[in-house]
Design the sequence.
């Protein structure tokens, strides 16, 4: 306690600072210039009595060190993961993963993975077709979907192809929305592309869009004509639903092209509306296709427990798809909560400001990614004054914010 609570054991002559490893910003004895500059700025803010400014300086420094300021091996790892098959901000921030050796040390998991991959444990009702366009769609489904491909392929024959095409059409539309580089400075073109995607792209059997997207999404949209040709082989009822949802979603996405989302959506209503446009409509489309195919009855199109502002009044329109929207918004909000840091780095975040600002100290959405925002240090059991000193400046605002978003 004496060592932490007093200057009794302070050595200002031989020990200047404890530095991080060389992979990190300012590591291996090079922290001096960076920290001296920060210390001077902090001292000036403290002298002026501006506690908020001082706090912001500290948090911004943490952000630089832990998210942007990696050098050497750390930067190489980020660059490597950035070339992954997914577009957007995936790979732009450090992530945790297990090494191949660590994975191989779990033989049961290895066996289960091999059995799953090669054992044909899951039916694929799409692959039974010999049509080259259907084969392309099935192949792309497995490449651009991380979670839905296996489920879609197990749907009843006929229906599985409807949903496969529906998914790929919306994935192509989403690729346009997510590409922040191809349309940089050309927001009007992006808005027009989104609004006219159904009318322009979904009617062109030889459609090919170049220069948009990354990885497998780029391949999909470059060969979108194959998806269109399969689309026109579907029942008229399914075609009508897919086209209608594509038009509605494209217009909804276009409304957000020029919106300033660097700090998230304005409030809960805007957050809900965005989720409706990009996911609630998917729920509506799926429900309508299921009912149109005779797989489900019309009660599935009902209200559900939650009343959404963007759904028609259930008393006037019983089939208002409120339940379908609840399902879609649940899935989308799960992804948005998970992808918080990637979205923040990409400059298109969605956490509602009316929620997160209640828990923020600095007024910056990126604050919740920093160690001082999620209890770093307070987990250390220390006696006396040591515990309070180690935890000084540390809060649990990230956890409180997350709890409110989840609840």
Sequence:
């Amino acid at each position: 306690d004496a060592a932490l609570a007093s200057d009794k054991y302070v050595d200002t002559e031989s020990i200047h600072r404890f530095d991080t490893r060389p992979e990190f910003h300012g590591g291996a004895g090079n922290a001096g210039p960076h920290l001296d500059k920060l210390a001077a700025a902090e001292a000036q803010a403290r002298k002026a009595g501006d506690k908020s400014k001082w706090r912001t300086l500290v948090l911004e420094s943490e952000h630089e060190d832990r998210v942007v300021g990696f050098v050497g091996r750390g930067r190489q790892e980020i660059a490597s993961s950035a070339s992954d098959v997914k577009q957007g901000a995936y790979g732009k921030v450090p992530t945790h993963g297990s090494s191949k050796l660590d994975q191989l040390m779990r033989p049961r998991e290895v066996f289960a993975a091999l059995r799953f991959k090669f054992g044909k444990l899951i039916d694929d009702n799409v692959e039974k077709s010999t049509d080259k366009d259907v084969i392309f769609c099935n192949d792309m489904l497995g490449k651009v979907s991380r979670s839905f491909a296996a489920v879609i392929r197990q749907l009843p024959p006929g229906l599985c192809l409807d949903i496969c095409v529906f998914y790929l059409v919306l994935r192509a539309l989403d690729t346009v929305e997510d590409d922040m580089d191809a349309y940089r400075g050309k927001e009007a073109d992006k808005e027009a592309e989104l609004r006219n995607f159904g009318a322009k792209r979904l009617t062109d059997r030889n459609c090919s869009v170049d220069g948009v997207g990354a990885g497998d999404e780029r391949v999909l949209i470059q060969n979108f004509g194959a998806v269109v040709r399969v689309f026109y082989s579907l029942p008229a009822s399914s075609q009508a639903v897919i086209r209608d949802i594509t038009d509605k979603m494209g217009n909804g996405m276009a409304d957000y092209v020029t919106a300033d989302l660097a700090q998230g959506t304005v409030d809960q209503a805007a957050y809900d509306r965005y989720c409706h446009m990009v996911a609630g409509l998917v729920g509506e489309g799926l429900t309508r296709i299921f009912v149109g195919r005779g797989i489900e009855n019309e009660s599935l199109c009902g209200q559900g427990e939650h009343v959404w502002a963007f759904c028609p009044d259930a008393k006037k329109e019983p089939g208002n798809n409120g339940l379908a929207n609840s399902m879609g918004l649940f899935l989308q909000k799960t992804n948005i909560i998970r992808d918080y840091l990637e979205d923040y780095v990409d400059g298109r975040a969605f956490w509602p400001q009316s929620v997160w600002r209640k828990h923020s100290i600095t007024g910056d959405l990126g604050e919740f990614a920093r160690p001082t925002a999620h209890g770093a240090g307070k987990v250390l059991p220390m006696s006396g004054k040591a515990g309070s000193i180690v935890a000084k400046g540390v809060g649990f605002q990230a956890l409180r914010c997350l709890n409110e978003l989840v609840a």
Notes: The domain at 123-258 is CATH 1.10.600.10 (Farnesyl Diphosphate Synthase). The longest helix spans residues 268-292. Residues 66-91 have pLDDT under 50 and may be disordered.
